[in-house]
Design brief:
single chain, six-stranded mixed β-sheet, 19 helices, 28 strands, about 30% helix
């Protein structure tokens, strides 16, 4: 995989132009916002203007705020001209003489223009601000949301009540071009059997008393309850003032949990005065009252599957909740988490007349490569007639495929919107950034954007707060004033990518380059290796080592195929990525077209070198802010090297299991020892910096990197013990195979060209043709509806000269879903390749999508 230069891939946003602000001496600038201009007079524009004024002052300019232009340099902020039509939330920035004019389509658009000028001013490397004559920017995703969760009383109360923090945090989100904050409660637990921290778990009585019901929280004073509501009102109103929609997430509607002791030995707060007979009505009336007291709320997020504490299939209960939203008397979006959702639930929500959104997970509860997985794991595929246990009758039954992807939600005739929710299972402690190409994935098949769980999500979840603060730093000199400030570049990269990938800013940010390279490591690992799709079981960032030899007991990876060992773990996209065991079978057999763990290992090695090169360019000097980011980048590079070595060891171990060859076993041991050495460097890099990083009560998510090292050593010892039973022989083919497995893998693109159809008409045949300049042995067309509940279909293409033809039958296209397809090309006896495959890295959508023509 070639190195990625951020200045090569971050298109647009050029600073090319002529100097406008600069020169010797202190100069005056008139910042013009006409109060008669509704857009310029809006609260979001005013907030952004404050940020620009502060940046100008810091740069040495005397700033005058006025309603009309002054002498000399002017910065004019205004709504659109009468004859100009701009897309919602877009803006233009124009330079003419001594005047900069920022025009916004609306309040948000103008605020983004003001924040853009602020960023350019603060990022300048000379005394003069250089601007193009015209710069325009337009969003591609209507919804760009950050989710912040309250999951731990000890860790989360301080930021919840901090009224100095909220304006700074929201200004950061707005300047990053997010347009929604999703503040979520009730995600601390997904079952109520072992509750140790119940604050805000069943949220309503922590915020208000509902007339007609005697429901309250044990030990919670009326004054604290009222403070909670007042704080939530403040936060929601601040969001609107900063140009962000406010979504209230209410993820738990169960209210009964066994009395227990919390982590401090105190009693867990209990819900009093509520019964099964009054449960639904109370929740309905509480929600209506809450929304009337919080007029800034424009969306309510609901988890409607069994982890909500309510048994799946309880349609009557949720109808009452939906009535509670409608009862507020204004348009409020109902955002349903997709797991377990079905047509009946969606229909009941739509019946309220409120706008309805469904939020499926992107790459399970993790974060993979910048495309939507071609398939979900076998473990999640629907099984006809299956009924889940306990509360999870649907999501672990016939609707199991809704758990970890977009499922069957992307039909073209849908009456609801879809936006994708990104969970923190891949990474939530170490800082990095994402590539701009991710932004385009959240308009997939008409989707409207993303809701991204921010860094540090789940810290202290399920009562696991420790003496280590929420930011994870044992070394307090590494801490920032507010823990989110460490991740400033992450917020910028995500928000700007979601807004418009083509205009993500360029610059000479050497630390940013290192974080961009480091940010490629764990998404690639996640894509290739998924021992569990649950974020509270598997996190490659703080990896609990899955053994190669023996299934562990206890074992956090319950959703791996038996025996639940490393080589049996599937990819998060098994249609396009092979497992360790599958890869070994391909090497021992006729080869395969899928991306192998060995190819992934080579890419991880390349990325590690890219990270190191970027860190070398950044140098060793710098602020404490730079130092902590360099540590995080170095740890991610070593994690990538660890997984690269273990992937190779896994494939070799599968070959050893098939051959019992001693030479192969020695190669396994060598690679696993190398993996252990890289893990040791992770431990050393974190030593004295990070403390306890627990984010749940699952054994795989407790402690820190040093606590995981004994698991690696134990598995290596068990493999070493196999020497006594290995067959000693000399097989030249195996020696050659081991050498090839250990060597670098060069990705080879399919040798063909193809022009996709512009779309398709349901009920008509879709014909595709592939041109092959070289002699090849065959082409197979793989195709499927954009519906993850279905399996892929295949058919052999027919050759006509240098062109291969295939056609999807008319009865298959007669569907409400878009179509997706790719080709598998047999270039030689053991040489199979994918088209389009991953040759277009870092934008590797490895299939083509056709939408229905109207």
């Amino acid at each position: 995989m070639a190195a990625i230069n951020r200045r090569d891939v971050l298109a647009g946003g050029s600073l090319a132009g002529a100097p406008l602000l600069g020169g010797a001496g202190r100069k005056s600038v008139t910042l013009v916002l006409d109060p008669a201009d509704a857009v310029a007079a809006s609260a979001p524009a005013g907030m952004a203007a404050q940020g620009l004024q502060a940046a100008l002052t810091d740069a040495g300019y005397a700033v005058v705020r006025a309603a009309r232009r002054g002498k000399g340099l002017n910065i004019v902020a205004a709504g659109p001209a009468a004859h100009v039509r701009l897309m919602a939330e877009s803006f233009t920035l124009r330079r003419a003489g001594d005047t900069i004019t920022i025009s916004g389509a609306d309040a948000r658009g103008l605020s983004y223009g003001l924040w853009e000028l602020t960023r350019r001013l603060r990022d300048q490397t000379s005394t003069a601000l250089v601007l193009p004559e015209v710069f325009c920017d337009t969003p591609i995703n209507p919804v760009r949301s950050v989710m912040r969760q309250f999951t731990c009383e000890a860790y989360d109360k301080p930021w919840f009540y901090d009224r100095a923090m909220w304006p700074a945090y929201l200004a950061m989100l707005a300047s990053s071009r997010f347009n929604r904050l999703d503040l979520a409660f009730g995600l601390a637990y997904d079952q109520l059997a072992k509750v140790r921290d119940s604050y805000f778990l069943f949220t309503y009585p922590f915020l208000l008393a509902v007339p007609g019901y005697s429901v309250r929280v044990s030990g919670l004073s009326d004054a604290e309850r009222d403070r909670n509501l007042d704080t939530l009102r403040f936060i929601s109103e601040q969001c609107v003032s900063h140009g962000l929609d406010f979504q209230l997430g209410l993820w738990m509607h169960g209210y009964e949990w066994p009395a227990a002791k919390d982590s401090n030995g105190l009693g867990v707060a209990m819900i009093e005065g509520l019964t099964p007979d009054t449960h639904a009505a109370y929740c309905r009336d509480a929600l209506t009252l809450l929304l009337k007291k919080l007029p800034a709320v424009s969306s309510v997020g609901l988890r409607i599957h069994g982890e909500s504490g309510v048994k799946e299939g309880s349609y009557g209960f949720w109808q009452e909740i939906f009535k509670g939203v409608a009862g507020a008397g204004r348009s409020i979006e109902i955002d349903l988490h997709a797991k377990g959702v079905d047509d009946a639930m969606i229909g009941n929500a739509l019946a309220t007349g409120m706008p309805v959104n469904i939020s499926p997970k992107y790459w399970g509860e993790h974060f993979g490569l910048p495309y939507h997985q071609a398939s979900i794991r076998d473990f999640e595929m629907p099984k006809q007639g299956q009924v889940g246990e306990g509360l999870m009758t649907l999501s672990e039954g016939e609707r199991s495929f809704t758990r970890y992807g977009y499922a069957d939600l992307l039909r073209d005739d849908r009456k609801y919107t879809v936006r994708h929710r990104i969970f923190p299972g891949t990474q939530h402690i170490l800082a990095s950034t994402i590539l701009p190409v991710y932004g385009a994935q959240f308009g997939f098949c008409g989707s409207t954007g993303a809701d991204v769980m921010e860094p540090l999500t789940y810290r202290g979840r399920r009562g696991t707060a420790t003496a280590t603060p929420r930011d994870g730093y044992e070394a307090r000199k590494m801490a920032s004033a507010w823990d989110w400030q460490k991740y400033g570049r992450w917020y910028q990269s995500v928000g700007r990518a979601l807004y418009n990938p083509a205009s993500v800013p360029q610059g000479d940010d050497l630390i940013g380059d290192a974080l961009a390279q480091a940010g490629r490591v764990l998404p690639l690992v996640t894509t290739a290796y998924a021992p569990s799709a649950a974020c509270d079981a598997y996190t490659p960032e703080l990896y609990w080592n899955q053994p190669l030899v023996s299934e562990p007991n206890p074992n956090p990876y319950g959703d791996t195929a038996a025996p639940k060992v490393f080589n049996n773990a599937q990819s998060f996209d098994p249609q396009l990525f092979s497992s360790m065991r599958e890869c070994a079978a391909e090497w021992l057999g006729d080869g395969g077209a899928r991306i192998s763990p060995l190819q992934v290992a080579s890419w991880l090695d390349d990325i590690g070198r890219d990270v190191q090169a970027a860190l070398s360019r950044a140098g060793k000097d710098g602020s404490i802010d730079d130092h902590r980011l360099k540590i995080d980048a170095e740890i991610q590079a070593e994690l990538g090297r660890f997984f690269a070595a273990k992937f190779r060891a896994g494939v070799l171990f599968a070959i050893y299991e098939a051959t019992q060859d001693r030479g192969v076993l020695e190669a396994v041991i060598g690679r696993y020892e190398s993996a252990g050495a890289h893990w040791g460097r992770v431990v050393q890099g974190a030593k004295g910096v990070y403390g306890d990083l627990s984010c749940s009560d699952m054994l795989s998510e407790r402690g820190a990197w040093a606590d995981k090292d004994p698991l690696i050593r134990a598995d290596l010892a068990e493999i070493t013990a196999l020497r006594a039973q290995a067959r000693i022989g000399y097989d030249p083919k195996l020696i050659e195979m081991v050498s090839a497995v250990l060597g670098p893998q060069t990705y080879r693109a399919a040798d063909l060209s193809h022009v996709p159809p512009s779309g398709f008409r349901p009920g008509e045949t879709v014909a595709v043709a592939f041109d092959t300049p070289a002699e090849i042995l065959g082409v197979t067309l793989w195709y499927r509806h954009v519906n993850q509940a279905e399996r892929w279909q295949s058919l052999a293409a027919a050759k006509d000269g240098s062109t291969w033809h295939a056609a999807v039958a008319a009865d298959y296209t007669n569907s409400p879903y878009p179509l997706q397809y790719y080709a598998e090309v047999q270039q030689g006896p053991r040489d199979r390749r994918l088209y389009p495959g991953f040759a277009a890295w870092p934008a590797p959508q490895p299939y083509i999508v056709l939408r229905r023509l109207t």
